[in-house]
Design brief:
The protein is 24% helix and 25% strand. It has two helices and five strands. It has a five-stranded mixed beta sheet, with helices on one face. β1 and β2 form a beta hairpin. The radius of gyration is 21 Å and the shape is elongated.
Length: 118
């Protein structure tokens, strides 16, 4: 595959650090990009995705759909010719939602009345 058919994409994490850039063909799907994030990084971070469905990719303010190809999402990248495309990574672990709901359920039980009748 000729080098001009490849797009360099790097992934910006929640803490401002980056993974990549990696070369991808225009035929690569967003799902393939997410699989790369799950397998190759982020190492040593507090929030690490365990599955593809925990990762969202955002580019030019739009959440990218898994079944779209990099070529189909390329319209916003048109001005970048020869540059590196930056995609923002949002990680939403399924476990965090469960813990939050549990805290909400436990909080009413912890309220103790401290009234005194004189």
């Amino acid at each position: 595959m000729p080098a001009e058919d490849l797009l360099d994409i790097k992934f910006r994490l929640y803490d401002g650090s980056d993974i990549g850039p990696f070369p991808y063909s225009a035929a690569s799907t967003v799902d393939m990009l997410k699989q790369r994030i799950v397998s190759d990084g982020p190492k040593g971070k507090t929030i690490i995705p365990k599955a593809v469905n925990e990762v969202k990719l955002i580019s030019s303010g739009k959440i990218l759909e898994n079944n779209k190809t990099v070529g189909q999402c390329q319209a916003p990248f048109g001005e970048v010719a020869g540059g590196v495309i930056v995609m923002h990574v949002v990680i939403q672990p399924a476990l965090a939602k469960t813990k939050t709901e549990k805290k909400i359920d436990d909080s009413p039980r912890k309220i103790v009345c401290s009234c005194s009748i004189l």
